[in-house]
Amino acid sequence: MRREHFTLDVTHIDWVETDGEPKKPMVSIDFTGPATMLRERLTGPGGDVLEASETDVALRLQGPLGDDTAGVVSVTNRITGEFILELNEDADDVLQFIQAARGYGDAADDEGRYAVEITLDGDSFVDYDKRTFLVYDDEGSLLRQHSLIPSGVEL
Fold first, then answer.
1. Residues 6 or more apart from 36 whose CB is under 8 A from it?
2. What's the chain's Rg over C-alpha atoms?
3. Is residue 85 helix, strand or coil?
4. Is 73 left (phi over 0), alpha (psi -120 to 50) or beta?
5. Cβ neighbours of residue 46 closer than 8 Å, sequence gap 6 or more
6. Which residue, among 94, 104, 92, has the nearest Cα to 68 in the 3D structure?
7. What global pTM score does this model have?
8. How far apart are the C-alpha atoms of 37 and 136, rounded to whole Å?
9. Nearest residue to 60 (alpha-carbon basis) of 50, 48, 49, 73
C-alpha cells in the first residue's frame, strides 16, 4: 500500500477558531488502492474487524516543529505493533485537529474525543471513537504537550 492511495479529510474543527459550539472532530481516511490488503490489516486473527481499542493513531514529525513541517500520520495495530496505514500530512494541520479534539473532550461528556472513519473507495469500512493521539518528534521521542492523552493514562 502506498501513501498516495490515501486521502485524509478533516471536519468539525473550525469551531475552535470561532469560539463556536464544540463538535466532535472527525477524520475521514479514504483508501483507493487494492482493498484486500487494507481489509486484512484492519482484521484481527479471529476474522473480526479491529475495535477502536485495538488501534493507535499517531503523528511522527519529519523535522522540528515550525512552519511547513511535514509529518506522517499512522494507524497501527495495538496488539501486534504493525502499521495498518500511513499517510503524509502537514504537522500544523494535525496539531490543529488535536487541539480541537482536546477542546471537544473538555466541553463534552463523551467517551471519544474524535472520530475516525476509514473508507474503501468511498464505502465506509470502519468507524472508531478515539481518545488518544500520540505525537512524536523526528527522533522518536513522545511530545506529551502536543499529544492527546486522556487523564489517568500512563505511557
1. none
2. 15
3. strand
4. beta
5. none
6. 92
7. 0.90
8. 27
9. 73
Q: pLDDT for 53-77, tens place per residue? A: 999 999 999 998 877 899 999 999 9
The residue to which cell 471537544 is assigned: 104
Block residue for cell numbers 486484512 = 40
> pLDDT tens digits for 26-48?
999 999 998 999 999 999 988 99
Residue with cell 468507524: 127
Contacts of 8 (CB under 8 A, 6+ apart): 27, 28, 29, 73, 87, 89
Tell me the three state secondary structure of residue 36.
helix
Amino acid in position 83: F
Q: C-alpha 113: how far from its chain's center?
A: 11
Cell 482484521 found at: 43
